[in-house]
Amino acid sequence: MNIGDVAALSGLPAKTIRYYEDIGLVKPLRSSNGYRTFRESDAHKLAFLGRSRALGFSIEDCRNLLALYEDEKRASAEVKDIAKQHLERIDHKIAEMKQMRATLAHLVHACAGDHRPDCPILADLATKQGDED
Amino acid sequence: MNIGDVAALSGLPAKTIRYYEDIGLVKPLRSSNGYRTFRESDAHKLAFLGRSRALGFSIEDCRNLLALYEDEKRASAEVKDIAKQHLERIDHKIAEMKQMRATLAHLVHACAGDHRPDCPILADLATKQGDED
DNA sequence: ACTAGGGCTTCCATCAACTGGAAGGTCAAC
DNA sequence: GTTGACCTTCCAGTTGATGGAAGCCCTAGT
Question: Which candidate from A74, A90, A119 shows the least CB-CB separation from B97?
Answer without folding.
Answer: A90
